[in-house]
Amino acid sequence: MTDLYQYEKELHQKNIHYIGGVDEVGRGPLIGPVVAACCVLPQDFILEGLTDSKKLTEKKREQFYPYIIEHAIAYGVGIVAPEKIDEVNIYEATKLAMKEAIETVQKKISLEHVLIDAMKLDLDIPSTSIIKGDAKSISIAAASVIAKVTRDNMMIELDKQYPVYGFKNHKGYPTKKHIEAIHQYGLIEGYRKSYGPVKEVLEGEHV
């Protein structure tokens, strides 16, 4: 079993304590922003069952979210809008969201090290990029829950305005039902125009 504290422990042994775990959610959806979070946990933080947010049920994430933000030393969220995603591409937009989340935390405390899920960022702070980091680092796992719940809540709110699209179920990801809905009802504000299924609808409208 993976020791979720391994990276944090190594840094604590070097007298590094303000460690930010960074993760994002929302690279795949057709609509809405990409959301990143940075989370700094106390050394004695324990939350049984915490892992990569994608492996948790929605109910578990909803339970963990308030516990994490209440016990975190600091956390920050970065949100990059769909227009920016279309302008710079999703990879670059993800980096912008992560940097925004880190900067938000930096306004509260001085980060000493950043653990980032899979991405490499150009930062003034020492950082470590960890492949599948959300399943290997407690700080990244906590950030993944914050980012996921934040973005999912946006989709639930959007669902209240536009229930025919089913956002509360698919959260904007390109499921069969979602793609059928955009062909049937057209596009609303917030769709990523550079994404294939959205392009198809736009091209269909221009025929």
Which descriptors apply to this entry?
207 residues; alpha/beta; single chain; elongated; 5 strands; Nucleotidyltransferase, domain 5
Main β-sheet description: 5 strands, mixed
Name the average pLDDT: 96
Number of DSSP-assigned strands: 5
Number of domains: 1
Question: If helices are DSSP runs of H or I spanning 4 or more residues, what is the number of helices?
Answer: 8
Can you write the helix and strand succession as a string? HEEHEHHEEHHHH
Computed over alpha carbons, the radius of gyration is 18 Å
Give start-end ranges of low-pLDDT stretches: none
Share in helix: 40-55%
The CATH class designation is Alpha Beta
End-to-end distance = 55 Å
Give the helix/strand class: alpha/beta
User: Under CATH, the topology is which?
Assistant: Nucleotidyltransferase, domain 5
